[in-house]
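USER:
I wish I could look at a protein chain and see how it folds. I am handing you a single protein, as its sequence and its fold in token form. As I understand it, each token names a local backbone shape. I hope you can help me see how the letters and the tokens relate. The protein I mean follows directly.
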Amino acid sequence: MQEPEAADYYFLPVPTQSYAAMGAKKAKEEVTSLLEYVRVTWPFYDRSHGVDHVMVAGGKLGACDLFDGQAMPGAVQVYHDTHL
């Protein structure tokens, strides 16, 4: 996007399936590290407290297991289980 300040939402492409293979504890560490990188590199997450950022968690380890509501407070967390 040429004008990120004008965006309504920011999509964070998080490889949740790869993280899930590491186990829940390591996955949470990776997500926390990713968030810190996003916060240090761009101003947009802190500007809105993350409410305009979207992450998708697929597979058996979903948003509840990976994000725990703590790693990315405020962010929109979408969960999709392929076994529904």
Notes: The chain is about 40% helix and 15% strand.
